[in-house]
């Protein structure tokens, strides 16, 4: 199936009309799972990773979907990511546990951590899991969504490899580490759950890699080149630094992610995390995962009714000039997921070719014949 690109969550990147191939989510999931299993990833773990990557592509977060596979597989082949690692949990208090990811996939560590946090929250109202020795876990919203599906509020923090300067600096120090959180809603009159998932940079670095892959320009306020100048060339931007959103405040949020995910957990921090595109060393990423029972101070239905009311107030407010519709955090992604779930996920030719090259390496069926 071939179609022109259609608008998604990130209009700046869909302005360039490129031919895309629509892939059904089930095909993308099977392909990913098979590819991972051929790289020694146990089937249950491969399913978790495939679910998270396909969910990112479904939600329009293409920067953190299937296109990340080649970098993860390179890390396995270079021996810096352990495909067979099984996370271990150590209970510290009734509501606090530490998870050692043993240098396995971040997706598996975060999914396991959120599962355990939810179990603790069911019994005690809150559950916190600090994760160490992990790797890149992709789109944070996958784990917020996991909590929402269990009727839980959540915080999902991670640190990441250096890309962002401290405010006033020009060298890479902090990661573009996303801050994510969520809460379930009742769904009355179209109300959707609250799902915030944002990088503290003007844009996620994955979007620059995506623009580079697709031969697209980036907006001039996303990054500085290696000489400290603003640039619209993704290749030049990757030599320089990302710009924090909101100046010093974005830089402060990135430091916050490092305090809670890195310093606190025992994982690498202060610029020492290794990124997913650097296959020279183990990642040693840290995560901070919290689940909170929303019905601690009132019944669950009342909580959800209040969330629905908040939704209606947010999206029903007076609009500023030129704005057609006010969205709730996570709503654009939810609508994109619904549409892509029916139509298929659009991948550009170069992306499919890169994935098919991985398929050829291990002799499995292509994602699509192009
Ligand atoms: N694992 C890692 O190390 C890592 C690092 C960086 C980014 N990421 C991922 O990259 C993704 C992209 O991050 P981003 O900051 O570029 O996302 P974004 O700017 O597209 O969206 C950020 C948040 O703002 C909300 N939003 C966007 N437009 C809106 C609108 N018009 N009205 C209301 N709400 C709106 C979104 O729902 C989302 O919650 C995230 O999923 C993040 O987890 C991961």
From TrEMBL:
GO terms for molecular function: oxidoreductase activity. The keyword Oxidoreductase applies. Keywords: Oxidoreductase. InterPro entries: Mal/L-sulf/L-lact_DH-like_ah, Mal/L-sulf/L-lact_DH-like_NADP, Mal/L-sulfo/L-lacto_DH-like_sf, Malate/L-lactate_DH-like. It comes from the Eukaryota. It holds the Pfam family Ldh_2. Belongs to the LDH2/MDH2 oxidoreductase family. This is Malate/L-lactate dehydrogenase.
């Amino acid at each position: 199936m071939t179609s022109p690109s259609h608008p998604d969550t990130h209009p700046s990147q869909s302005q360039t009309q490129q031919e895309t191939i629509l892939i059904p989510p089930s095909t993308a999931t099977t392909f990913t799972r098979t590819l991972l299993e051929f790289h020694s990833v146990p089937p249950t773990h491969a399913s978790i990773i495939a679910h998270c990557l396909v969910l990112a592509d479904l939600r329009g977060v293409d920067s953190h979907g299937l296109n990340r596979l080649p970098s993860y597989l390179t890390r396995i082949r270079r021996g810096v990511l352990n495909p067979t690692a099984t996370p271990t949990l150590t209970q510290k208090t009734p509501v606090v546990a530490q998870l050692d990811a043993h240098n396995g996939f971040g997706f598996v560590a975060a999914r396991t951590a959120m599962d355990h946090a939810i179990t603790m929250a069911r019994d005690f109202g809150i559950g916190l899991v600090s994760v160490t020795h992990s790797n890149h876990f992709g789109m944070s919203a996958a784990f917020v969504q996991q909590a929402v599906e269990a009727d839980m509020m959540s915080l999902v923090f991670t640190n990441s490899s250096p890309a962002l300067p401290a405010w006033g600096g020009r060298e890479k120090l902090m990661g573009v580490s996303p801050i994510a959180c969520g809460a379930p809603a009742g769904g009355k009159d179209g109300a959707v759950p609250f799902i915030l998932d944002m990088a503290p940079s003007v844009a996620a670095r994955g979007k620059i890699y995506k623009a580079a892959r697709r031969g697209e320009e980036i907006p001039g306020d996303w990054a500085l080149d290696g000489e400290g100048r603003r640039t619209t060339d993704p290749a030049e931007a990757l030599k320089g630094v990302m710009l924090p959103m909101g100046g010093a405040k974005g830089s402060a949020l990135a430091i916050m992610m490092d305090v809670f995910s890195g310093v606190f957990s025992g994982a690498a921090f202060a610029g020492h995390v290794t990124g997913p595109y650097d296959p020279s060393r183990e990642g040693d990423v840290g995560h901070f995962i919290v689940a909170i029972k929303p019905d601690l101070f009132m019944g669950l239905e009342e909580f959800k009714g209040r969330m629905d009311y908040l939704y209606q107030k947010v999206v029903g407010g007076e609009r500023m000039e030129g704005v057609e519709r006010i969205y709730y955090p996570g709503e654009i992604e939810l609508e994109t997921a619904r549409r892509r779930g029916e139509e298929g996920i659009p991948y550009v030719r170069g992306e499919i070719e890169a994935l098919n090259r991985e398929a050829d390496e291990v002799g499995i069926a292509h994602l699509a014949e192009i």
